[in-house]
Amino acid sequence: MLAALASVLTADYSLPTINPDPGSYIMLLGGGFIIATMGHLFKVKIMILAGIAMIFSATILIPLYVQFQN
Length: 70
What we know:
Layout: H1 2-9, H2 22-42, H3 45-69
Helix pairs in contact: 2-3
């Protein structure tokens, strides 16, 4: 029992790597703008929120995560 607990506690749990290729960020940013614009046109608040969340994650959250991961 203690050996199993020790192996779990000493295991190397590394986070998955994210590709820092700017193309994926640009696609997520563009998709966010398209979804947010469609949400404004059709007056669907959840689409607006989803688009803003995609833009925010493409410009701030994911690049910060990648920067702090290295």
